[in-house]
């Protein structure tokens, strides 16, 4: 179980998060839903310890490993895919591409372009490579910031299937997304409005279809 309680964060006079509490269990997928600027990336940044909150506590298990896939791919365009992987996971090609990491690359279809320069990859290929790099750190909690933005339907479907498999093996996911296909795979959907978080949909209690109109109404003020 990962949790944060009573987290607050302001940028100057801009109060972005107020008294936000959230927890996620193994095998659970949680969505953060909110309009642009509602604080989703800030909350993911706090959970990944990249952003320091003004106040609040973490309930993380010390052994737990949380990894963030940021909105912008953390890749160097001039390098090949394999050399980007080796930047984050140092070692020779043979050591880094052990059977575990190779199987991640194969599941995400990254193995077919390991020697291509990142500048020559499509948006979907870059996103799959970034996700593969994130997954190689064996996270218990995966923090995803709009992982499906501007991807084609096939690529979205591939990433969603990969995530569903990760969740079914006990991984936890917190995802900030505007995509209904990603919202549909989540157990719980929280809305962020005016700095406050609220549990809007809990499919552990009420499973079932949610229409796009319902999602839109959830983010309306
Ligand atoms: N480093 C920063 N310095 C100052 N203000 C910031 C900084 N980062 C974010 N903000 C502000 O905090 C608020 C929340 O931003 P954040 O990126 O967390 O929102 P978001 O919900 O992820 O938005 P989007 O859906 O557009 O990605 C916005 O008003 C933004 O301008």
UniProtKB/TrEMBL annotation:
Which superkingdom does the taxonomy of this entry point to?
Answer: Bacteria
Q: Does the keyword Magnesium apply?
A: no
Pfam families annotated for this entry?
A: ABC_tran
Q: Name one GO molecular function term.
A: ATP binding
The reply to whether Protease figures as a keyword in the UniProt entry is no
The residue ranges of the ABC transporter domain are: 2-219
Instruction: Identify the keywords attached in UniProt to this record, alphabetized.
Output: ATP-binding, Nucleotide-binding, Transport
Signal sequence interval, chain numbering? none
Sequence intervals crossing the membrane:
none
Q: What is this protein called?
A: ATP-binding cassette domain-containing protein
* Organism (species): Coprococcus aceti
